[in-house]
Amino acid sequence: MNTVELLALTGGVGGAKLALGLQALLPDDRLACLVNTGDDFDHLGMHISPDIDTLLYTLAGESNQVAGWGRADETWAFMAMLGRMGGPTWFQLGDSDLALHVERTRRLQRGDRLTEVTAHFAACLGIAARILPMSDTAVRTEVLTDSTSLGFQDYFVRLRAEPTLRAVQFRGHESATLTHEALEAITSPSLKAIIICPSNPYLSIDPILSVPGLAATLRRSGVPIVAVSPLIGGRAVKGPTAKIMSELGVPVTPAAIAAHYRGIIDGLVIDIADENDRDACGLPTLVVRTLMETLQDRITLAEQTVAFAQTLPRR
Amino acid sequence: MNTVELLALTGGVGGAKLALGLQALLPDDRLACLVNTGDDFDHLGMHISPDIDTLLYTLAGESNQVAGWGRADETWAFMAMLGRMGGPTWFQLGDSDLALHVERTRRLQRGDRLTEVTAHFAACLGIAARILPMSDTAVRTEVLTDSTSLGFQDYFVRLRAEPTLRAVQFRGHESATLTHEALEAITSPSLKAIIICPSNPYLSIDPILSVPGLAATLRRSGVPIVAVSPLIGGRAVKGPTAKIMSELGVPVTPAAIAAHYRGIIDGLVIDIADENDRDACGLPTLVVRTLMETLQDRITLAEQTVAFAQTLPRR
């Protein structure tokens, strides 16, 4: 049944917050989330999909609200013992979290697609929304610095996003294909809007948009596409978005976000702290509070964003 | 430095108890344990070595005394989540235990030998004794029933050793080789005795003896070889030894154990409950209490067994 009404493009933590708000509006399979898998990597023999897991845990109500990543009530016995045994401990793997990596790897190795594994996990966690990997093909985000090319997790986790970023590339993207599940969501006759969540545009949303044909398919859907700016007053709530924009020589402003998404989006939601930048955006903007501290903040921003999208003309 | 004075052949739980007693006598690298790896298997992408891990945990003082397997103070968050995610839960993997499987697999895949990985783990756990896999070559114990051939863990764990056993085979044993570490231990000029621990002769000791050249090398060492019977009054303390002997049409007696090890051992330690069977054994026997309930029981039996071995003539 092709009943998708809202499609969200999202990376991990920041995007998942808005996705949770959207889920409160559409608490069934009318919500679809197209999720970045450029951060996926193989570690200790396991296929790890950090953004998909963040979506799963967040939409299941099992995410760690304090840490901002991982599971609530996580335990760390595996990690402590791995450290004692001289194993690599730079990437934190909670005891429960580990089960998803192990079981995902097992299912992928027997031939299941990542989309199928993700749908299975979502069902196990009682999530009705469709959590769709951007592709079942491996696309790997790499960060180019002045001297080297770093795998995403190497850059982001091991080196704490400290190296200066000069460019980003999505290895393998040219041969990636849209899944039929993603295509079904984008082409749903009931689709009302596409929301680009306030994830890092360069590291979380661009990998999704790098899948050949995806951006054009989004445009052809005919529904309004609205992005929520990840910036508040020249800073990102979490993560290196602002630092990266500076390193790329881009002003840390909503106008730069608008320019980045030009040709894709029809409207931009920006924070009240950035109201002065509104006119520079050059497209319809909604100015609201975008900081999502409480669940109600998430729901309110979701409502405002969807309502704003409805005011924009269908193409 | 080739200083090995005692060599113990052992499987998991029962054998590890005596190994712990031997470690109390020789709390350094003068004790070597040659361990069954016929139970090893690949599960969820990991190389699991149950008997080696039991030795590691036992000699480190971190084994679960109540369960009789696994680690003390183990937690089970991974397993609970794996079950929620629809993964296979027939083989229990504790959160801390899991770290050894993951790290072992990582090291094997980068080219370390199982013997090297095991030595590394032992060092991490503060164990001075040499814990030596019977071979670095894969040997896999299989149980033949009336209708089928079962992998060891399938038979032992998943089917709880319930199928009737008709024969045991050690797949791959003909191409297995002794490691130079094992050879060094067996040929140590300081070697005083070789102890076959009270493990299951058919499922835990025979795989070790199936490594080509091993039995002959043990004999050529010239030191007394003594086995400790795993039976007490016609029953095994733990595990299916007695059931298997019945299924193989062998009397459940120390004399049958003696016959099984004929040509290998020079003496047998039997329990006081089996004293009447002493003469039927047909070789020197020591009759003592073999039930190891306390640490002192383990140490006493180790002392008695080593002292008994010293009374037997060098060949």
Polypeptide structure, described:
Two copies of one chain form a homodimer. By secondary structure, chain A is an alpha/beta fold. Chain A is built from twelve helices and 14 strands. In chain A, the strands form four sheets. Chain A has a seven-stranded parallel beta sheet, sandwiched between helices. A three-stranded antiparallel beta sheet of chain A has the order 7-6-8. Chain A has a two-stranded antiparallel sheet with strand order 3-4. In chain A, strand 11 and strand 12 form a beta hairpin. In chain A, helix 4 (95-109) crosses helix 5 (114-124). The longest helix of chain A is centred in the last third of the chain and has 17 residues, at 295-311. Chains A and B meet through helix 3, helix 4 and helix 5 of A and helix 3, helix 4 and helix 5 of B.
Quick structural summary:
Chain A is α/β, with parallel strands linked by helices. The first copy, chain A, contains twelve helices and 14 strands.
